[in-house]
Amino acid sequence: MRLDGNGSLQTVGIDSAGDVEAKGLFCFIGADPAAGWLPIDRDETGFIRTGTDVTTQTLDHWQSMGREPLPFETSIPRVFAAGDVRRGSMKRVAAAVGEGSSAVASVHRALAF
User: Fold this and answer.
1) Closest of 47, 24, 53 to residue 35, by C-alpha
2) Which of 64, 61, 60, 38 is nearest to 49 (CA)?
3) CA angle 30, 36, 38 (to 5 degrees)
4) What domains are there in the chain, each with its CATH number?
5) Which pLDDT tens digit goes with each residue over 2-55?
6) Is residue 80 exposed (0-12), middle (13-18) or buried (19+ Cβ within 10 Å)?
7) Helix (H), strand (E) at residue 98
8) Which SUPFAM superfamilies is this protein grouped with (predicted)?
9) For residues 63 and 6, what is the distance between their CA atoms, to the nearest angstrom?
10) Could you give the CA distance from residue 59 to residue 80 in angstroms, rounded to a whole number?
11) What count of Cα atoms within 13 Å lies in the side-chain half-sphere of residue 18?
């Protein structure tokens, strides 16, 4: 791939399509979760499971609490995850902000127990 322009982007050179006129470019560099330091339930690709995605193998300690994980709550009670590190997230900044805002409601519910 090649980016060309004079002071701003004008064309993108794509091997399979040639030069394409463009005024903007979105570059997605990948979404590798950086959560290996946290001993928590993750999927096979490393993304943190939350809410109903938390596996049943990690739910033993929830029985003593008399509840299941809340939305955005991880396999560790009162530990929440939002944004790109969470399994099933949209991997977009706006979505991560919205998830963080929604997680606050779950935090309040968890503190009320």
Assistant:
1) 47
2) 38
3) 130
4) 1-25 (no CATH), 38-112 (3.50.50.60)
5) 899 988 899 999 888 899 999 887 665 556 787 788 888 999 988 999 998 988
6) buried
7) helix 93-112
8) FAD/NAD(P)-binding domain (SSF51905)
9) 63
10) 15
11) 0
